[in-house]
Structures are given as C-alpha cells and as structure tokens.
Predict the structure.
Amino acid sequence: MFSKGSTRPPRSLVALIVGITVVPLATLLWLGWRLLEQDRALEQQQVRQRVERGADLVVSALQRAVSVSEQRLAAGSGPGADGAVAVTFRDGHVEASPHERLAYFPVVQPLPEASATTFARGEDLEFHQHDRAAAITSFRELARSSDSAIRAGALLRLGRNLHNVGRFEEAFAAYGRLSEMDGVSVGSVPAGLIGRYARCKLLQEQRQWPNLRAEALGLQRELWSGRWTLTGPVYSLYATDAAKWTGGESLGARQPEVFAEAVSVLWDRWMLSRPPARASSGRESLSVNRQPLSVLWQNSDGSFRALVAAPAFVESQWLRALAPIAKEQNISFGLRDTDEARVFGTVGTDGPKTVRGAAESALPWSVVTASLDPPVERYDFARRRLWLAAGFVLLVAMALVASYLIVRAVKREMAVARLQSDFVAAVSHEFRTPLTALRQFTDMLREHPALDDDRRRTAYDAQSRATDRLTRLVESLLDFGRMEAGARRYRFEPRDGAELVRRVVHDFRADALAAGYDIEFRGNGSAPIDTDDEALARAVWNLLDNAVKYSTTPSHVEVDLHNRDGQVFIAVRDHGIGIPAHEQAEVFSKFYRGEQARIRGIKGTGIGLAMVDDIVKAHHGHVEVESEPGKGSTFTIVLPAVLARPK
C-alpha cells in the first residue's frame, strides 16, 4: 500500500515550478494588465468626455425647442404641426385645437334638442292608435319645420315608421337626410350620428352586406374625423359596431383615439386638483395604449392648457435640430419615459453612455446618449494595445508550455494518492467494526463456556452477521477491482426482475429488522428483463444499505417496482438526511462521500453507488436520484424491459 508521504507532491518539484515559472509569470501578467488598464482608462476617459459634452448639447437644444412650443401654448395657439393636439379646460368645458384630432371628449356641451311634446300627437297615433299611416303623415309635416331640432326628431320618427310598414327605401332616405344634419341632437346624441347609425342598422336587417360595409366605413371615417363631439362611452358604443360591420378594417392610424384617452386622463387629474394651489406648469411623458406621448401643461387662472404630442411631432418639431449635433459629436441619443420605455431612438449598450434624468434636464423624458462607432482616437489606442498584448501573449505562451506537463503530472499524482489514501482509510474502518464484533463474541464464548443456549445462540447470530458483512465487503472490493480493470464479465439471462428484487428485499430485511428498520416492497406484476442476477442483486443491496445507513433513526424504507413505456423502474426510497443539490451529481463518483456522511461519522467506502452506476450501465440502463435535505432520497434504477419470448 501507499505510505503516508506518498499523498504529498515532492517539495522540490513544487519549489522548482514556483521559482521558475509561477512567480515571474504572475509578475509579468500583473505588469501587463496594469499597463493595459491604464491605456484603456485613458481611452474611456476621452470617449466619456465626448459623450458628456454631446449630452449637454442635446439637452440644451431640446430645452430650446420645447420652450418654443410652451410659448405657443401660453399664447393660445395650436400645435402648428401634425401629430399633436392642444387642449384647454375651463369649468365644464373642453376646447381642442385642431378639434378633429380628438375622437371624443371628457365632457361635451349639450346640443339643441326638440321637446318630446312636439311629437306627442304623432307618437299617440303610432303607439296607442296603431295608425302608422297617420303617424307618417304627422311626422312628415314636422320634418318640413324650419326648426332644425324639430326637423331632426321628426326625421328619426318618420324613418322608424316607414321601416315598420316595410317602406325601406323611403326610410333609408329619411335617415339619409337626418345623417346630414349637424348642430342638433336626438336623445342627447348628435342627429347626424343617429342618422348614419340607423342607415347601417337598416342595411344590416336587409342583409345588403356590400352596402352595409360602405355605409359603415363612412360612419367610421366620420367618427375618427371628429365631426361629432362625443363622450368616450358614446364614441366607444358606435365605433365598436362600425368596426364589426367593416370587418375590423382600419382607414388609418387611430391617433385621435389615443389623444382622446390622454386628454381624459389629464381632465381627471385636473378635476381632482381643483382649485390649484398656485399657478404651475410641467413637462411629462404619458403612455396610452402602449404609445408614448409627451405632455406640456400650464395651470393658471382657473384654466388648464396642455399640448399632447405623439412621437411624430416630437421628432419633427423638437428633434430635427439634433441630427447635426449628434453627427458632430459622433454619438447616438434616445428618449425614455418615466418607465424607461423607449420614446425615440435606439442607444447601443456597448461603450460609454450617459443619462440625463427628467428631473435633471427639466424635460418630459430621460435623455440617453452613447458613443457611436469608435472614432480615430480609439483606433490609435487599439493599435498600440494590440502590439503590447501580442508581446505579453508570446511570453506567457512560452512560460505556460514549459510548465504545463510538470503541473499536470503533479496534479495527477496528488489526486491519485489522495483517492487511494481515503479509500484505504475507509476500507480499514469498515473492516474494523465486524472484526471487533467477532473478537468480542469469540472472547465471550471462550471465557464463559457455561452460557445458556439463548445467549450462546445470540452470540452465534452476531458472529454470523459480522461474518456475512465481512464477506459482502470483500466481495464488493473484489467486484469493484474487476470493474475498474474491465475484467468483470456479465452473464445476461431473461429474468423476472420483480422476483429478483423481492428476494433481495427479503434477504436484506432480516438485518434491517434487527436494527429497527422496516423494509416494504411494492411490486406491480412481473418485470421481464435481461440481467446478471448476482450483479443486479448487488446493486439493489447497495441501494438498500445506503437507505438504512443514511437514515438518522430507525425508519421506513420503501422499494417500488413497476413497468412504464417499455422500461422497468426499481425505486428505493428512504426518509433520511437527504443529499444537497450540489452533491447529487457527484454521488456516483468512486470514493466520493458527502459532507454529511463525514460530519455524522457514517461508515462507508465510497464505492457502493459507483458500483450501482457501473452495473446499471452494463445492463443498458441508468440511475436517477431525487433528494431534498432532511426529507430523504429516492434512487431509481431504470432498465429496458424485454418482450416475453415464445415458449
């Protein structure tokens, strides 16, 4: 066997490696690294200064552009370009410029509407006397009124009665006249919208699908154009039906809907903050339907003014002057809202960058700037570092090649010696326990020849168990040696795996019960496999032995065998100390013993699971392990099942 000193590498060799290669190499690498870091730091400092200077110029230009829009807003002017809308809130009133850029409003002023008593006679003929012909005549006379509100209410009722008597073309024409009216309402809804919608409903009833689609497209177009001043719920009701009739076809971007939602949010905030404590203004970023909007607002004298700008307006009016600055400074820039979502621009993650927050820049967004492709100064630095690094690489390569074989040989010697030393210590400890038991009981029998039969039988049983343990240990060591040498020969024959496992459990249960462990076997039918009985029995025995050894107190061990998907599963489950996750990949390595085994002084050689893995692989299977510290472990042998051979 190996001597104690064989586990240590030669001190002279270690000293030679450290003195000739490691110390000079480490010194050389440290000096080279320091030099490269200084060079890189100088380069980064120059690039960072350029990016910082560019960020200051970009922020200044943006502040000037935004101030121009704020001056126009304070003067009551419109946005002056597409992609934005200016709104003014006063008591119960919302004004928008341009008006058509809002699909709907938070509140609307009621339009003139005729009194219901005006149509009482016609409705009495329609609903009580059921004389629709007379009702049609009454409503037709009112439809000639010079009062547009009366005319609108009469046209709606005239169309309804014409529809009810089956005069669809006349009803469609009446609704057409109603759809052309503006400035009056019927049932608190603009008359023109009621007429358009009624024509669509009539075409739907008549199943005139092409005409319905064309009419609905017209309704959709006028809803989006802002022809009618509507509240959000009313707009949503009619827009939903229009989209259904058109098949969801869009005539363009729904920017008015986005603006309308943003204005509704601003209106709610203004109503909650009234009356304002003092005159105030602000710049902020607002996200509506995942579209970023930029808002400039001014709150004073009981009114609230705001400019709501889409990315198109921001780019054309505020960012247009930044392109020459970015090109001159060789930077890219981008705008981010308060949630760090992109508003404009894409900034790369490589190289130095700087962020000017909204609070720092007094802008609605954070401004991010970064260096673009390396300019000339970076190429100069890179060329110098390349030559410097090449020289260091050459020196390091020469030193590494010279010492590689020596270091490798020393590490292998140390690993082999350590494994062998640990193995010898573990085997010696395993032998000592049964030998001690044999000696104690032998001395007892020799010194007390007059023992009664029961005590003598107990001593003999204990000697038998110790002898069996020694036999199994010796056979395990011999089998492991043959496996390591590749001399183990397996004799595979078709067997019923369930019967084999049942026999192993029965044999193991005798020792386990004496120690207070309960071994339960659950088999699900037969399990036909090609196996070497002795080898597979040893694998199952080793798993049972581990289950008992690594249970802190006498407990229950379960052995489960079942077939599934052409495979046989033999699972051994204990409720012991468990295996940490970081050790589960190592437990099948030879001589490996976990940290808990060493701390708790659990006996073992470290070859049991290595033998299990080797035997199962020889049977064309594999071993799975599931474990959680403190809750036990489950080791499962998975073997391919074989088809029953014909007799």
